[in-house]
Amino acid sequence: MKIHFTQHTIERAKERGISLAEIQDVIINGDQFSAKHGRFGKLKIFPFESWRQDVYYNQKRVEVIYVIEGETITVITVYAFYGRWHGNENIL
Questions:
Q1: Which helix (H) or strand (E) holds 26?
Q2: Angle of helix 20-29 versus helix 7-16 axis, rounded to 10
């Protein structure tokens, strides 16, 4: 299946510190969660162990919102949350 990134997704990913490779990884290997308006959502927690905006974080949680149109996954937007999670207890 082909993955298409909207311009909005590319801009939000850059702002939020998410690579396109991480988005693809979330779509392929992430855990599904409920999304609104007939969309799909997946998330994955990545090791981060770095600084972001003068704060040190152990992990980065990436959430991807997308739709499926035929043979194409169109990524609508992405979110990043920085912190520490022990597993998937934070799935919405």
A1: helix 20-29
A2: 100
Residues 6 or more apart whose CB falls under 8 angstroms from that of 39 comprise 65, 66, 67, 76
Contact between 67 and 88 (Cβ < 8 Å): no
Tokens coding 52 = 């972001």
Q: Residue written as tokens 């599904």?
A: 32
Q: Per the structure block, which two tokens stand in for 19? A: 């690579």
Instruction: Spell out the domain ranges in the chain.
Output: 2-83
**18-63 tens-digit pLDDT:** 999 999 999 999 999 989 999 999 999 999 999 999 999 999 999 9
